[in-house]
Amino acid sequence: MPLAKKIRNKMKIALLQLNPTVGDLRGNSDLIAGAARRAAGADLAVTSELALLGYPPRDLLLNADFVERSWAALRRLAQELADLPPLLVGLAEPNPGEAGRPLFNSAALLRKGRVEKTFKKTLLPTYDVFDEDRYFEPAAQPQILELGTAVLGISICEDIWNDRDQWRHRRYHTDPVQELVAAGATAIINLSASPFTAGKQIHREAMLSGLAKKHRVPFFYVNQVGGNDDLVFDGRSCVFDDSGRLAARAQGFEEDLIVADISLPSGIVASDDFTPESEIWRALVLGTRDYVHKCGFSGVLLGLSGGIDSSLVAAIAASALGPENVLGVLMPSPYTSPASIEDATALSQNLGLKTITMSITDIMKSFDQELAGPFLGRPKDVTEENIQARIRGNILMALSNKFGLVLLTTGNKSELAVGYCTIYGDMSGGLAVISDVPKTVVYRLAKWRNALGSEIIPTAVLHKAPTAELRFGQTDQDSLPPYEVLDDILERYIERHQSREDLLALGYEKTMVERVLCLVKNAEFKRRQAAPGLKVTDRAFGSGWRMPVASRAW
After folding, report:
1. Angle, alpha carbons 216-248-230 (nearest 5°)
2. Tell me, what's the pLDDT at 554?
3. In angstroms, rounded to a whole number, what is the distance separating the alpha carbons of residues 301 and 305?
4. Among 7-11, 149-153, 154-158, 314-318, where is mean pLDDT lowest?
5. Staple partner for 485: which of 80, 110, 386, 481, CB 3.0–4.6 Å?
6. Please, which residues have CB within 8 angstroms of residue 37's CB and are 6 or more apart in sequence?
């Protein structure tokens, strides 16, 4: 059959943008089944990468029983949906060969009540948060699905990220898209679980548009949505026609379903806001909500200091979970200013939070008395400041235990980078909501949130000098460079991988640069013990950060 005639034949493809939970085979099956029934008018429905397992399953993949149970769930799903059109479902497939890794990252075709065939992923990312070479064997050849008169090239996530015209330095020698087109594919389908970082969707869409235009084939891209541990997935599944035109886009940061025809792709292009503040806010809200709910909790608590960080985290938590499920705890000390208490109280009232106030003054005195002997003859220093933070951490953890609430830590990326935080103190908790948000971006997010309507974060919080209030007159800049300077150095060093020499060439003082880089290195032992944080930048302190603790290099 002539190629042009194949393209003119109508075939509707449904992209199922779902929010799976890692390891929840029953729940994920129900999600997929419900979406497949809503898409019953399409000729083919497609889930995201490893949707049946939830992404990323990490070392659950080393559990043979888990993989076996996933295939039992897949077969049940096939039987349950036997009356529906074909469905492509992402999951891990055992490797029957004697050599290679034990699994394939696959998409299984369900049709007429059975698992008809599978399609395997070719490119296996092993960088940043990805570690797929640990588990999977790559596909040996292009993966083509002939469905009716359509010839569909099946690809999985990384398979589309290696075009020689779009990447100056390619990670792989193979270009699966080029191979699929050479094998006769007249449309490309991609099952993805592509984590969110600010600005990534603009790049994704430019890449997909370029691929569609270059190869003159439509692209159907379906992405996971939701939060799983430190990763947030923004969805935004999309379709491009063979001229590179955006033909359809799903909602960002929520479940959705889009349908388009391969002959003349056209659908709803969901409106979106690609400004960094909007994207990061929505990612943090979604990540917080899913982390709490998927871990089996209903609510959270956090310490409210009257500062910008705790104010922003409280606003995110209230948006994610509802203010009725957020408990704010005020813990003033002799160094806490009246203004800080006023600001924390005003914030709580603006958000409608429940609060508890517990002074730590008497507890501090008891520590001073008990430690007076061992500390005799030694001046007060950061030790006493850290004790205050640890008193607060203990109180918050006690309340967390007693009330069954997840404790949110409120430290930002700038502080975590240089160790301006107290291990077992303000670092205590179950989720570090803004640990990948630099201090300057914290202020931008707060101002952006206030601009949406009524003032949530008190204006005074935005304008006062940041301080931990662990001694009289203390400000962050007693110990750190101005945040505008610090954040620029940190971004260049951490995210752009610029060296000390690169930073010096920009005109930064040698003493400042060496001090900041030394602080980053020396704080590694703290970060290794920190609560998981939500990734929103290209390089976060989490699963993609693998620095040694005992090291002399910096």
Report:
1. 105
2. 59
3. 13
4. 7-11
5. 481
6. 81, 84
Q: Among all residues, which ones are annotated catalytic?
A: 49, 121, 157
Could you tell me if residue 414 is left (phi over 0), alpha (psi between -120 and 50 degrees) or otherwise beta?
Answer: alpha
Contact predicate 209/238, CB 8 Å: no
Q: Quick one: 141 exposed, middle or buried, by C-beta within 10 A (0-12, 13-18, 19+)? A: exposed
Tell whether domain 10-264 is in CATH 3.60.110.10: yes
151, two tokens: 């010839």
Q: How far lies 330's CA from each of 133, 310, 354, in Å?
A: 47, 11, 11
When pLDDT is averaged across residues 539-547 and rounded to a whole number, the result is 90
Angle at 315 between CA 466 and CA 323, to 5 degrees: 140
> In the numeric block, which tokens belong to residue 37?
């029934």
pTM of the model: 0.94
CA distance 493 to 469: 29
Residue that the structure tokens 């499920």 belong to: 325
pLDDT value at 241 more than 80: yes
With a pLDDT cut of 70, the percent of the chain lying above it is 97
Q: Helix or strand or coil: residue 262? A: coil
Mean pLDDT over all residues of the chain? Answer: 93
Residue 301's region, left for phi above 0, alpha for psi from -120 to 50, else beta, is beta
User: Which CATH code is given to the segment(s) 279-469+523-528?
Assistant: 3.40.50.620
Residues 6+ apart with CB under 8 A from 154: 88, 107, 119, 143, 144, 145, 180, 189, 191
To which H or E segment does residue 260 belong?
A: strand 256-261
The full set of domain ranges for the chain reads: 10-264, 279-469+523-528
Name the pLDDT band for 1 (thresholds 50, 70, 90). Answer: very low
From residue 122, alpha-carbon distances to 176, 248, 472, 493, 494 in Å are 7, 26, 60, 32, 30
Q: Are 105 and 121 in contact (CB under 8 A)?
A: yes
